[in-house]
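For anyone still unconvinced, we reproduce a single protein record, the chain in one-letter code, the fold tokenised, and leave readers to judge:
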Amino acid sequence: QEHLVESGGGLVQPGGSLRLSCATSRSIFSVYAMGWYRQAPGKQRELVATITSGGSTSYADSVKGRFAISRDSAKNTVYLQMNNLKAEDTAVYYCNGKNPFTTHNYWGQGTQVTVSS
């Protein structure tokens, strides 16, 4: 059973935009802090952005001013709007849900983002 279902990855030119989506259940969405991580080839998985159930956000320095995380309570979905994409943003992007009380984690299957001309 997939608890987090991602979509929206693809190939985009430098300077372009993409929006990633992560759909989940109401029980997860209403409690868990949601986030996006990424992993480039040969590198460790790194945190990109997070948003709490209350709507507080945080970002990695490398994406501040370019990426925006948001959540839609009506759709139980978290989004990552990525603008002004750079080649170094190329990675597999993973949606994450973290229970703030137990630290239990859910992970999505990952979606490939490739920034190339």
In short: DSSP finds one helix and eleven strands in the chain. The chain has a mean pLDDT of 95. Residues 37 and 48 are 5 Å apart (CA to CA).
